[in-house]
Amino acid sequence: MSGKEKILDYLKKNKSITQLQALNLFWDWRLSDKIYQLKKDGYDIISERMKVKREDGKDVYVTKYVLEEEIWNA
What's the whole-model pTM score? Predict the structure, then answer.
């Protein structure tokens, strides 16, 4: 299974993913590239900016990718 297929499978099951999740689950440092490829394939994936607090208390922003439309059921 390719990296893109792993990400798509995860999105179908969980509806969203962040870079940290992709790294922890699949050792994938190039999530944005996989999302770009999936969008080119016709999947409706949106990017949401989330504010999270680091362990040192500093607020930082991360991107969460959300699968919006289940085109595979069409």
Answer: 0.83
Query: In the prediction, which pLDDT does 9 show?
Result: 96
Do 20 and 60 touch, CB atoms closer than 8 A?
Answer: no
Instruction: Give the closest residue to 43 by CA, choosing from 65, 26, 18, 21.
Output: 65
Domains and CATH numbers, the chain: 3-73 (1.10.10)
CB-based contacts of 25, cutoff 8 Å, min separation 6 = 10
- Round to whole Å and give the CA distance between 2 and 23: 15
Cα-based torsion angle of the residue sequence 58, 54, 59, 11 in order, rounded to the nearest 10 degrees: 170
